[in-house]
Amino acid sequence: MRSLKRIVIALLLVTLAGTASFAKTRKKHVTFVDNVLVNGTLVNAGNYLVEFDEMANELSVVKNGKVVAKTAAHAEPRDSKSNDTRVRRRGMGDSSQLVSITFSGSKTDVVVDQAGMQAGGNN
Q1: What's the burial of 12, exposed, middle or buried (CB within 10 Å: 0-12/13-18/19+)?
Q2: Closest Cα partner for 98 from 46, 59, 65, 63?
Q3: CB atoms < 10 A from the CB of 60, how many?
Q4: Which of 57, 83, 100, 117 could hold 111 in an S-S bridge, CB 3.0 to 4.6 Å?
């Protein structure tokens, strides 16, 4: 009976550890050299922490511990690992929109979903 209890506990721990490994959030400090729109929110030029939650398919822009913008996004595979972090945007000036971010060392691009882009941009 005692050994059965240990086996059940061991299986539970293995299951929990496996589930935790799938929940992945990627984070990277980035600098926006110009203002950019993220899901209709104007993010001023500056340094931010960008986080992508793969489970929620959500990209967050964080400044001083506060989320300043959040949008739906998804991961798309790349042919090879990225050598650096890249921020891609569409448009110019305060109407430019965040399109995607590639984290250094990643084999995926984090692409902002079209619904997360403000209507009326340059598609």
Answers
A1: exposed
A2: 59
A3: 20
A4: 100
Would the pLDDT of 121 be above 70? no
And the tokens for 38? 């993220």
Say which amino acid occupies 96: S
pLDDT digits (tens, 9 = 90+) for 31-85: 999 999 999 999 999 999 999 999 999 999 999 999 999 999 999 999 999 999 9
Q: Where are the domains of the chain?
A: 24-116
Angle at alpha carbon of residue 61, lines to 84 and 77, rounded to 5°: 45
Calculate ∠ Cα 46-52-55, nearest 5°.
Answer: 160
Contact 112, 102 (CB under 8 A): no
